[in-house]
Amino acid sequence: MADGSVFDLLIFGFRNNLARGRALDFLNGLPPSQAGPAAVDRHTSRPQRLFAALDADRAHRLRAQLEELGAQVILLDVNAPVPDAITVQAAAEPPAPAQSGIRPSTLFLVLMLAGGAFLWRISLPLATPRLPSTPVHSEAHVEDRLFSAATDTGHAIVDIEAEAIRLVRAREYAAA
Predict the structure, then answer these.
(1) Please, are residues 166 and 143 in contact by the beta-carbon 8 Å criterion?
(2) Contact at 8 Å (CB) between 74 and 90?
(3) Between 20 and 30 A from 12 (CA), which of 1, 18, 71, 139?
(4) Dihedral angle computed from the Cα positions of residues 44, 77, 16 and 46, in that order, rounded to the nearest 10 degrees
(5) Residue closest to 54 by CA, chosen among 7, 1, 4
(6) At what angle do helices 17-29 and 56-69 cross, to 10 degrees?
(7) End-to-end CA gap in the chain
(8) With 70 as the cut, is the pLDDT of residue 154 above it?
(9) What is the pLDDT of residues 72-120, one digit of tens each?
């Protein structure tokens, strides 16, 4: 770069909120001059020209300090020729807001879940199968089992239960 180069310093943004605070404090602490800095706060739109027509040494020094603080800045050579192919167009109207309809992927996911639930539901039996009926034992069969258990094991509890059943059969409720 030639010694007579003149630069503008533009700011595009900040690395994070802490960097924004540090860079804005640094810019507000600089003495005002005709070259800048331009008034910048946290709500200033970006990109913003901070300094205009700075000599090369001061421009590079300020850029390095601001980048170290976390600002995203760039130097533009004022004397650089503008290519013919670049045309600047202002936005006539803001872009349309995003539509709030259902996205196709969401619709597909909902349909897949509903289909899976349907298939899972129809794969289940429609009615709960009946349990096989267990044969109902007659009272005589139960009594025989108790008597056989009493004679086989010799437990006093089984003997008492067998005697109670025999007394109930004989309708001697008071003794049972």
Answers:
(1) yes
(2) no
(3) 1
(4) 20
(5) 7
(6) 140
(7) 119
(8) no
(9) 888 888 776 655 555 556 556 666 666 667 778 888 999 999 988 888 7
pTM: 0.42
- pLDDT at position 64: 92
The neighbouring-strand residues paired with 75 are 9
Rg (C-alpha) for the chain, rounded Å, is 47
pLDDT exceeds 60 at position 50: yes
**Alpha-carbon span 123 to 114, nearest angstrom:** 14
